[in-house]
Design brief:
Blueprint lengths: L2 H19 L2 H8 L3 E6 L2 E6 L2 H10 L3 H10 L4 E6 L5 H19 L20 H12 L8 E5 L5 H15 L5 E5 H13 L3 H6 L6 E5 L8 H16 L3 E6 L11 H7 L3 E5 L4 H15 L5 H10 L4 H18 L5 H7 L14 H12 L3 H5 L5 H17 L4 H6 L6 H17 L1 H16 L1
Parallel strand pairs: 2-3, 4-7, 4-8, 5-6, 6-7
Antiparallel strand pairs: 1-2
Helix pairs in contact: 3-14, 6-7, 12-13, 12-14, 16-18, 16-21, 18-20, 20-21
The structure holds adenosine-5'-diphosphate (ADP) and magnesium ion.
The site of magnesium ion has 3 residues, from helix 7.
Length: about 450
Amino acid sequence: MTNQQSNKELWDIIQSEIKDIVSEGVYELWFRPMRILNIKDDVVYLEVPNRFYKEWIEDNYPQLLEEKLSNYLGSKHSIKFRMQEKPDVETKKIDNKKESRRQRLASKGIYLNPKYTFDNFVVGTSNEFAHAASKKVVDEPGTVYNPLFIYGGSGLGKTHLLNAIGNALFDKDPTINIYCKSVNILTNELVSALRHGKTSELLETFSGVDVLLVDDVHFLAGKERTQVEFFHIFNTLYEKQKQIVLTSDRPPLEINDISDRLRSRFNMGLIADINPPDVETKIAILYKKSENEGIKLPEDVAYFIASRVKSNVRDLEGCLIKLGAHSSLTGKKIDIELAKNVLKELISNDDVKLITPDRIQKEVCEYLNVKVTDLKAKKRTKEVAFARQLAMYICKNLTNLSLSEIGKNFGGKDHATVIYACKQVSEKINTDEQFSRIVDTIIRRIKDN
Ligand code: ADP
Ligand code: MG
């Protein structure tokens, strides 16, 4: 078999797995047009139609392809994208600059995303407080607000601000040692260090850290060992007056399952929230992003997207990228018709009755004869648990809600519970024909009613 054949076969397998994970629309637009060009020296070269694809995949499924490919190839492989459509000189320059900055940082063990800066962060009433606090931290690290605790819903710019702080501090002083990782990565590193008896080496690396930026600290919930170590890392750096910035999807008081002493540390400095942006801010974000991406976005289209995408900046950008990708693939210019057409699955249309978690729960419960209140409670009888999983699965497929937003609609379950539910249900759909028909029927009822 030639290399090309085996690459194609490998890619077919990966694509079929991806189909099970993402929705059909997402698969068709983003994943189907890709192919493996070449595999060399632990790098898989993937061909994509244009730069929007690279960006979209990196933003939405950063690890998915790498994990799947590495799994099949039996060792860790990284991914490089090759574009069919050559980027113009300007874009290439900017990309190269970002990439070389990323590499320069990574060679020092600093994992900042060069894409996220203060320059391209749009300030509006929803985020001005968090933005101002972040700026202040850059001006006077370790003194005024320590720790700075930024919280807000998913896709509202927490990771962006965290990295902007790091990037700005690095610009001020390129010798600075910045630790910027999410709690999940920290946890993985710790688990692996524990397994190999290298905990003290790992903890030792924190002694030279000047700035500690930790993303998504709500994931500390329930991770006792990580909490203990994190508490010590926090204290050591805090006592040395090193700046600490933390982000979370909720305020410290609402993070369940963390130790009181850690919670009180989180509360010690300044707590700043980020709220969903208003329409004006959303439009400003769209303009800024389209300018950066070289997308010509007419005013009415910007307004259309901003007024339909309810709260999440990530989704807002997703619409723009999808529109850009579509227009660049087909050569059609971006106008309101194209936007309505291309974005119909992504945005809510007020003319059509919205499919909400409430409606999904109601239909599922009616069909399976369980009470909606039980679905939102802790109740775990087999019937209720089953109905709950199914309703979560349908929410995932018929709404644009994030996993944690779905969880919230089921009495505050976390995103992991939702992922687990979706997995259970898709497995059953694949193996049990009768069950699969029931699911179809329920989905039809939801759509028709
Ligand atoms: P979070 O960490 O809160 O879930 P992110 O920081 O990852 O959200 O933001 C999601 C996307 O939205 C990112 O691409 C980010 O650049 C963008 N974004 C969020 N808020 C803003 C803003 N105020 N201005 C510009 N881009 C923003
Ligand atoms: Mg984030």
